UniProtKB/TrEMBL annotation:
<dbReference type="InterPro" id="IPR014718">
    <property type="entry name" value="GH-type_carb-bd"/>
</dbReference>
<dbReference type="Pfam" id="PF03065">
    <property type="entry name" value="Glyco_hydro_57"/>
</dbReference>
<dbReference type="GO" id="GO:0030979">
    <property type="term" value="P:alpha-glucan biosynthetic process"/>
</dbReference>
<feature type="domain" description="Alpha-amylase/4-alpha-glucanotransferase central">
    <location>
        <begin position="326"/>
        <end position="410"/>
    </location>
</feature>
<keyword id="KW-0326">Glycosidase</keyword>
<comment type="similarity">
    <text>Belongs to the glycosyl hydrolase 57 family.</text>
</comment>
<feature type="domain" description="Glycoside hydrolase family 57 N-terminal">
    <location>
        <begin position="20"/>
        <end position="283"/>
    </location>
</feature>
<protein>
    <submittedName>
        <fullName>Alpha-amylase 1</fullName>
        <ecNumber>3.2.1.1</ecNumber>
    </submittedName>
</protein>
<dbReference type="GO" id="GO:0004556">
    <property type="term" value="F:alpha-amylase activity"/>
</dbReference>
<dbReference type="InterPro" id="IPR040042">
    <property type="entry name" value="Branching_enz_MT3115-like"/>
</dbReference>
<keyword id="KW-0378">Hydrolase</keyword>
<dbReference type="InterPro" id="IPR015179">
    <property type="entry name" value="A-amylase/a-glucTrfase_C"/>
</dbReference>
<dbReference type="GO" id="GO:0030246">
    <property type="term" value="F:carbohydrate binding"/>
</dbReference>
<dbReference type="Pfam" id="PF09095">
    <property type="entry name" value="AmyA-gluTrfs_C"/>
</dbReference>
<dbReference type="InterPro" id="IPR028995">
    <property type="entry name" value="Glyco_hydro_57/38_cen_sf"/>
</dbReference>
<dbReference type="InterPro" id="IPR004300">
    <property type="entry name" value="Glyco_hydro_57_N"/>
</dbReference>
<dbReference type="InterPro" id="IPR015178">
    <property type="entry name" value="A-amylase/a-glucTrfase_central"/>
</dbReference>
Length: 736
């Protein structure tokens, strides 16, 4: 029998503690379908089955748009069951950004667009007014208030950590507060960090003891548990604990049995029934662990040592109140790959906004609609950071975000130029927000981004037909948890995480450069694939990092970027010049090298490094192939060729063949770029890119030397398989 809403919101005379159970369910944009399915079977479905039995226990539920779209498409019966709980007043639906963006990372216009769009979608789906929202990763800055309130949201929930950093005494964090920006007022609930660590891991009596203690300290207290729903079944080891051994059922029974002093409620009910504890202006923060992950890697040991010293001296509470880690935005400084992806996202957002401002009557055009939805998907936070969970090191998440941004750009091109237009253009600006100009060559087929000031590298390379970013590789760099691996982790770690492969300590190899392409080096001698992988080679000069002069031009249907740098090679000043050409309607990127004033007394060994991302290793349908069409090995293997005019990288699943051809025979080495990273399931080796390095030995006495390279990106496999969608297609049923 359904319980009337009024019976859930009332407070018994003997009750002095309210408890708000807030769940956040999320899967990233681009995650594997099998991961969605496993999380559904292990967490979302069994939790629903249990909570359905406890009609008198209300909860607040947030489901990210990327997960909800999957549930609507694949599990409509789940949606129907949640809708029934909403209808009987047991479940309050929380809104938020549609595709779980870090709100402080995106422009104000996109914040409001994501929040309003998701509220509309949820209200249509569940027939409930959306009043509250979830802040992704609880990343907060005060300027969010105006956009949230403008989007018709009344309240949100953060961590008590935010409030403690504002100097609010912990014992007063037993209700909600108001905060303000530019005259807009928002209710903010502090989520309890102790409850976040206790639920669902501690004994029920321990959890109840904490709640009772709070009630003894203050009348009419509210305690908020707000955390990931995946803790209830999907996290390693939790399924049996929560469901098989009955933790969640016993906890809900305990809530029911203690109704004489403990009242479960939703955030909305607490907001309606309680007066605010006061006003507060919260500092820029996230949950405590996130601020620690945002610190520079080399400063983390200092922070952790200081925190440990304070705790051992009995000042742990003061450390919790006043010790603060880093600032979320510094992930863009800590990881240049995050900055580059962020800059690409911002460029697409700006372009879309400019078109809408110039053409307000075109806002209903399906191509702009699709571009906006693809942009919002490309703002999903997961691959923009890394800690214990963030997916910067997960290529499929990074690739998905880039893919959606490329799709958005394609839709904008279709609107402005027509879907079949052939063109090639060049532009120079500070595209990646480093204070220096970059150059973009872009056409109907390819987008190529260059950094003249930093080695003249190719740092972005998009194949537009299949919405794939081949230049989005991540460098191998130190992470704090690598020390655990060095200290002997091979099968288990002290924090409960496991190594997914043996020998990870031997894979802790770090790069001294970003994994771009067109990185030129003069080597002491040719180097094989394994020594290149280990970084065991001697580079002569600083051509890989030099400041290249550049000029752009046009020749007919082609655009050109010419760069040159003069540096020391032994006793001589040597000039490396390279000209890159992109032609309308062509899938080729042509590179011409000209070396001048080479040493005459000895041979020169000239190498060019390419890093090709997005092509997975570890599968037989992803492989190297020589210029004669012979398979050489999978993309996660080493290849050494003594003399060849080219090498191909083939990904049959993705439907692309990336071919590199040269006018002069070269020795070619290829190897996988693999990082050791941490996730919820443990420590693992992750394939980031395939590195290909052709090396030419230029005879002594040459003086001047040239070579022409052509990179060709053949997507005929994708065309035949139907993976390439028409830009003229009408939008799908999902709305933003």
């Amino acid at each position: 029998m359904a319980v009337p809403r009024a019976s859930l919101s009332g407070k018994s005379p003997m009750s002095n503690v309210r408890f708000a159970f807030v769940l956040h369910n999320h899967q990233p944009v681009g995650n594997f379908d099998g991961v969605f399915e496993a999380a559904f079977q292990e967490s979302y479905l069994p939790f629903l089955e249990v909570i359905e039995e406890f009609e008198d226990i209300p909860i607040s539920l947030h489901t990210s748009g990327s997960l909800l779209e999957w549930l609507v498409a694949h599990k409509p019966e789940y949606i129907d069951r949640v809708r029934e709980l909403v209808g009987r007043g047991q479940v309050e639906i929380l809104g938020g950004g549609f595709y779980e963006p870090i709100m402080t990372m995106i422009p104000s216009r996109d914040r409001q667009g994501q929040i309003r769009g998701y509220s509309d979608y949820l209200e249509h789906l569940f027939e409930q007014k959306i009043r509250g929202m979830w802040i992704p990763e609880r990343v907060w800055e005060a300027s969010l208030v105006s956009d949230i309130v403008s989007s018709e949201i009344e309240f949100t929930v953060l961590d008590d950590f935010h409030f403690r950093k504002a100097g609010v005494p912990p014992e007063t964090l037993t209700g909600y507060f108001t905060t303000e920006d530019d005259g807009s007022v928002l209710g903010v609930f502090p989520g309890s960090e102790p409850m976040r660590y206790m639920i669902p891991f501690h004994e029920i009596d321990h959890v109840l003891g904490h709640l009772r203690h709070v009630g003894e300290q203050r009348d009419d207290a509210l305690v908020v548990f707000a955390d990931d729903g995946e803790k209830f079944g999907s996290w390693p080891g939790t399924y049996d604990h929560v469901y098989k051994y009955g933790w969640i059922r016993r906890f809900l029974e305990a809530l029911r049995e203690n109704r004489d002093w403990l009242t479960p409620c939703t955030l909305g009910q607490a907001f309606d029934e309680l007066e605010p504890r006061g006003g507060v202006y919260l500092p820029a923060a996230s949950y405590r662990e996130m601020t620690e992950w945002a610190l520079p890697t080399d400063r983390r040991p200092e922070y952790e040592q200081l925190r440990t010293e304070l705790e051992h001296s009995g000042r742990g509470d003061q450390a919790n109140d006043f010790l603060h880690g880093g600032f979320w935005r510094n992930f863009k400084a800590k990881y240049p790959e995050t900055r580059d992806m962020y800059a690409r996202m911002m460029e697409v957002s700006r372009r879309l906004n400019d078109i809408c401002v110039r053409n307000p009557s075109a806002l209903a055009d399906h191509r702009l609609y699709e571009a906006r939805r693809e942009l919002f998907r490309g703002q999903c936070n997961c691959p923009y950071w890394h800690g214990s969970f963030g997916g910067l090191y997960l290529p499929h998440l990074r690739g998905a975000v880039y893919g959606h941004l490329i799709n958005a750009d394609n839709q904008l091109d279709a609107f402005e130029r027509g879907a079949r237009a052939e063109y090639a253009e060049v532009a120079a600006a500070d595209f990646n927000f480093d204070g220096k100009p970059e150059v973009r060559l872009f056409s109907d087929r390819l987008v190529a981004m260059f950094t003249p000031h930093d080695g003249g590298h190719l740092y972005g390379l998009d194949v537009r037909a299949i919405a794939t970013a081949l230049g989005a590789a991540v460098a191998r760099r130190p992470e704090p948890y690598h020390q655990k691996i060095r200290e002997g982790l091979s099968a288990h770690s002290g924090d409960g995480l496991q190594a997914k492969q043996e020998g990870l300590d031997r894979c802790l190899i770090y790069d001294d450069h970003q994994r771009h392409s067109l990185i030129e080096r003069f080597l002491e001698a040719p180097v094989d694939a394994d020594h290149l992988r280990l970084g065991e080679f001697q580079e002569l000069g600083e051509f890989s990092t030099g400041d290249y002069r550049y000029a752009t031009s046009r020749s007919g249907e082609s655009v050109l970027l010419t760069m040159s740098h003069t540096g020391r090679l032994g006793a001589r000043s040597v000039t490396v010049g390279k000209t890159i050409t992109l032609t309308a309607g062509s899938s080729d990127l042509a590179i011409r090298y000209r070396l001048s004033d080479l040493p005459l007394e000895r041979p020169a060994h000239f190498a060019v490094e390419f890093n090709i991302a997005a092509l997975a290793g570890g599968a037989d349908d992803r492989y190297y192939r020589d210029a004669q069409g012979t398979r050489l090995g999978r993309l996660d293997e080493h290849v050494d060729l003594d003399a060849t005019l080219g090498i191909d990288l083939v990904d049959e699943w993705l439907g692309i063949e990336a071919m590199i051809r040269g006018s002069e025979s070269a020795r070619v080495a290829a190897y996988p770029v693999q990082s050791v990273s941490q996730s919820e399931g443990g420590y693992e080796l992750v394939h980031q890119a395939a590195c290909v390095v052709p090396t030419w030995t230029i005879p002594a006495g040459t003086g001047e030397w040239e070579v022409e390279l052509v990179m060709t990106f053949d997507v005929s496999r994708a065309e035949k398989s139907g993976r390439i969608d028409s830009l003229d297609a009408q939008p799908s049923s999902a709305t933003t």
